[in-house]
């Protein structure tokens, strides 16, 4: 469980104690390019310079390291400005045969020693990282050879005796063991989903699986899960049943390398011919190919890459001769460091298991994120006839409460279909608690939620009405419809509503049923969860808008934009959006500021704009300060920046709530709602006394399912009460506040950065502990 600020101040470790003075760090990108690599390069450069190290670009990957010369250049603060939103890698990436030879690595070592570079940050796939590890293992021998050849002296060999390596995985395939998401994967999913929302597609194996979840595909072929023999008939039957329920479009996703149980390839053309021959459906094939690598990086990839870039520099500063080369990665929502070769060996074992047709083993080795995606996909792809489904005789109601959030519909679809698969009769409540007490309740079936995954807003309808004043009528409706469990998907009102219902159990027996809430709000202000459905889509809206706003001033004189975001009193959107957009300053309620801070910020930005920096972004959360309004800050910056820059003002407003949900929100909503229904099933069985009456009134039968660091955790809402600031509708402690110093460092501010929560070296686990009833891996 995450307790954000539980460490006492005297036990905190600040990176001011980790000096980079006298050290040189080089950063390179290698292998296939991936969106977000530039954000990682930017973070490494700025964090390196911040701690006093010299930082070098190595252009064109290992080829540039071997060739030396102008390929290895010292980086400056300004040299990485305006690259955050650029796709691919601006420092270049090339595959290098020469580095695979001993002579090539000897040349590379000579080029590094000439510049006293003994710290390497490598951004690439498993091949690139394996090469870096071999380079490190050979380092002392390479230096000895260079001394013997008279290319360096013994003093240079002695002062550069240790080579430290930290890797970041940049790969759209997300096929590297040990990390939940690699840099570039989320952006590639954005490209795929943009197309898959309308047409069929081909993609990489991880991308295929997650995009199948995110778009509600009818069938997916991936190498790790070859279909059972006779799949041709099963697939055609499922497609035919889908059409008979009124669906006019079927989506089949075929991953690169998909095979059947005999190891024979399954291609998109083969599938197309099969559908046309057996069903006569008009069928089209689209192969995305390199489109998946294109476009600007998503907000998730920018934040991931920025966090990992800073983490990589910290890992290099802390490295010693005995520290193994490591990979920095993200597991759940937490930064971790893993031994590079353990990850590589596990990744290679996946391929070995595939070659030996040990498909279940391959899935297990791929890691819990892949495994859970696959489990959820299987749950949602129940292909047996209705008559073969179990019958639980339980009725489960689903409702949306609060403001609309993108991804709510994906969560409802998942809940309905998993509930039906578990044997429950599912009921939809329209318009939240208001619709509940008015009796707007009807059964919802499998086909009713077809095509919901990619829809924005709330198709069920949602309102902010709380149940407190309507308890008697809601109890009456529960009795009329014989509702045995509740799933509430929504924001702060959903949380307060669940508190009110559980508190009324003493008075109304009807509320003595299992209740669970899944957080869905763009503000991400729910206690008990690091993330909410909808907040990623809102972050992408903010980031895309900031990119466009900056681009609108292209070719003009220096300009600063003051941009207001939503979020109520919660500064999550402003802060994390600021990190993704490369903001210079972000004003939020949780970090009070006065006129002296505003003045210092203006002066700081003015100094930056006197260099080669052309654009400035200042974000302000809508409720950050009642007196220092967006207009006030705009006028202040306009006046104080006169002669150096001019200002423009934008209020983003409700566009942050609109649009189709991002791949992350679709996937998160799908998986978390499936977990919630499985919890309901377990709790119903446990609460059904003697097979006669259902009675659930203990505090652990009214829960919030939230993401905490590495796991999805069920927490009694009554226990979250003390963690809540009800006046300002925010949690008392919020994990993302630790990202603010990182954001300030990347904007050239001097600040304290608490690294006590940074990644510690761990080992890649092969056997994971079994999930408990209260927590589940993501």
TrEMBL record:
Pfam families xrefs: PFK
Binding site for ATP: 32, 95-96, 125-128
Active site: 173 (proton acceptor)
Pathway(s) of this molecule: Carbohydrate degradation; glycolysis; D-glyceraldehyde 3-phosphate and glycerone phosphate from D-glucose: step 3/4
Secretion signal span: none
Subcellular localization: Cytoplasm
Domain annotation Phosphofructokinase: ranges: 25-315, 395-680
InterPro entries: 6-Pfructokinase_euk, ATP_PFK, PFK_vert-type, Phosphofructokinase_CS, Phosphofructokinase_dom, PKF_sf
Binding site for Mg(2+): 126
CDD domains with a match to the protein in the record: Eukaryotic_PFK
Enzyme Commission code: 2.7.1.11
UniProt key word Chloroplast: no
Region (N-terminal catalytic PFK domain 1): 1-382
Gene Ontology BP annotations: canonical glycolysis; fructose 1,6-bisphosphate metabolic process; fructose 6-phosphate metabolic process
KW Transit peptide (keyword) present: no
Region spans: C-terminal regulatory PFK domain 2: 395-778
Cellular component terms (Gene Ontology): 6-phosphofructokinase complex; membrane
Catalytic activity entry: beta-D-fructose 6-phosphate + ATP = beta-D-fructose 1,6-bisphosphate + ADP + H(+)
Binding site for substrate: 171-173, 256, 284, 290-293
Binding site for beta-D-fructose 2,6-bisphosphate: 464, 521-525, 559, 566-568, 622, 648, 654-657, 729
Ways its activity is controlled: Allosterically activated by ADP, AMP, or fructose 2,6-bisphosphate, and allosterically inhibited by ATP or citrate.
Recorded family membership: Belongs to the phosphofructokinase type A (PFKA) family. ATP-dependent PFK group I subfamily. Eukaryotic two domain clade 'E' sub-subfamily. Belongs to the phosphofructokinase type A (PFKA) family. ATP-dependent PFK group I subfamily. Eukaryotic two domain clade "E" sub-subfamily.
Protein's UniProt name: ATP-dependent 6-phosphofructokinase
């Amino acid at each position: 469980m995450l307790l954000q600020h539980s460490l006492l101040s005297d036990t905190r470790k600040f990176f001011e104690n980790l000096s980079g003075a006298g050290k040189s760090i080089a950063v390179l990108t290698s292998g296939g390019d991936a969106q977000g690599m530039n954000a990682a390069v930017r973070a490494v450069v700025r964090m390196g310079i911040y701690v006093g190290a010299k930082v070098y670009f190595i252009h064109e990957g290992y080829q540039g390291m071997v060739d030396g010369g102008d390929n290895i250049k010292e980086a400056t603060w300004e040299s990485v400005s305006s690259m955050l939103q650029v796709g691919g890698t601006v420092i270049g990436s090339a595959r290098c045969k020469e580095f695979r030879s001993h002579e090539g690595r000897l040349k590379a070592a000579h080029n590094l020693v000439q510049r006293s570079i003994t710290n390497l940050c490598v951004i690439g796939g498993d091949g690139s990282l394996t090469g870096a590890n071999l380079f490190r293992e050979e380092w002392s021998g390479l230096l000895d050879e260079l001394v013997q050849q008279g290319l360096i002296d013994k003093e240079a060999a002695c002062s550069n005796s240790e080579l430290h390596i930290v890797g970041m995985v940049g790969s759209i395939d997300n096929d590297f063991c040990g990390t939940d998401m690699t840099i570039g994967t989320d952006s590639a999913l954005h490209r795929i989903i943009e197309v898959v929302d309308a047409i069929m597609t081909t993609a990489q194996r991880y991308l295929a699986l997650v995009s199948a979840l995110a778009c509600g595909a009818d069938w997916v072929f991936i190498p790790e899960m070859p279909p059972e023999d006779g799949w041709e008939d099963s697939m055609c039957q499922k497609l035919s049943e889908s059409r008979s329920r009124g669906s006019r479009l079927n989506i089949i996703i075929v991953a690169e390398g998909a095979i059947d149980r005999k190891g024979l390839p399954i291609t998109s053309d083969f599938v197309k011919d099969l559908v046309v021959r057996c069903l006569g459906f008009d069928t089209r094939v689209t192969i995305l190919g390199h489109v998946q690598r294109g476009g600007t990086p998503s907000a998730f990839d920018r934040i991931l890459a920025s966090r990992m870039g800073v983490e990589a520099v910290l890992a290099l500063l802390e490295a010693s001769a005995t520290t193994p080369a490591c990979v920095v990665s993200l597991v759940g929502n937490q930064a971790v460091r893993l031994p590079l070769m353990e990850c590589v060996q596990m990744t290679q074992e996946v391929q070995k298991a595939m070659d030996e047709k040990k498909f279940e083993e391959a899935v297990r080795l791929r890691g819990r994120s892949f495994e859970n995606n696959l489990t959820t996909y299987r749950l949602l792809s129940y292909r047996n006839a209705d008559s073969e489904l179990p019958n639980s005789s339980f009725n489960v109601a689903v409702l949306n409460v609060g403001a609309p959030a993108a991804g709510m519909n994906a969560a409802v679809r998942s809940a309905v279909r998993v509930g039906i698969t578990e044997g429950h009769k599912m009921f939809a409540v329209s318009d939240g608690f208001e619709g509940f007490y008015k009796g707007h309740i009807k059964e919802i079936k499998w086909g009713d939620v077809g095509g919901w995954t990619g829809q924005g807003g709330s198709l069920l309808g949602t309102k902010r009405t709380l149940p407190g004043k309507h308890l008697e009528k809601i109890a009456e409706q529960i009795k009329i419809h014989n509702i045995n469990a509740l799933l509430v998907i929504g924001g702060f009102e959903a949380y307060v509503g669940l508190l009110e219902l559980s508190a009324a159990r003493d008075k109304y027996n009807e509320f003595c049923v299992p209740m669970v809430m899944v957080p869905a709000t763009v503000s991400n202000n729910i206690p008990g969860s690091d993330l909410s459905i909808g907040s990623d889509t809102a972050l992408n809206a903010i980031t895309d808008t900031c990119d466009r706003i900056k681009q609108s001033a292209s070719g003009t004189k220096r300009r600063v934009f003051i941009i207001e975001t939503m979020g109520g009193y919660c500064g999550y959107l402003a802060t994390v959006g600021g990190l993704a957009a490369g903001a210079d300053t972000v004003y939020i309620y949780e970090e009070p500021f006065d006129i002296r801070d505003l003045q210092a910020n203006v002066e700081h930005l003015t100094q930056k704009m006197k260099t080669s920096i052309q654009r400035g972004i200042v974000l302000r959360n809508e409720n950050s300060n009642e007196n220092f309004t967006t207009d006030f800050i705009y006028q202040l910056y306009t006046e104080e920046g006169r002669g150096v820059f001019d200002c423009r003002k934008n209020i983003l407003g409700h566009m942050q709530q609109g649009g189709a949900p991002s791949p992350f929100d679709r996937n998160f909503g799908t998986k978390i709602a499936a977990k919630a229904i499985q919890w309901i099933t377990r709790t119903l069985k446990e609460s059904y006394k003697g097979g006669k009456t259902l009675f659930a009134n203990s505090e652990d039968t009214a829960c919030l399912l939230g993401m905490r660091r590495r796991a999805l955790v069920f927490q009694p809402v009554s226990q979250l009460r003390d963690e809540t600031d009800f006046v300002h509708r925010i949690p008392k402690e919020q994990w993302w506040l630790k990202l603010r110093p990182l954001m300030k460092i990347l904007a050239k501010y001097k600040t304290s950065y608490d690294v006590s929560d940074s990644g510690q070296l761990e080992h890649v686990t092969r056997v994971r502990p079994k999930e408990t009833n209260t927590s589940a891996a993501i």
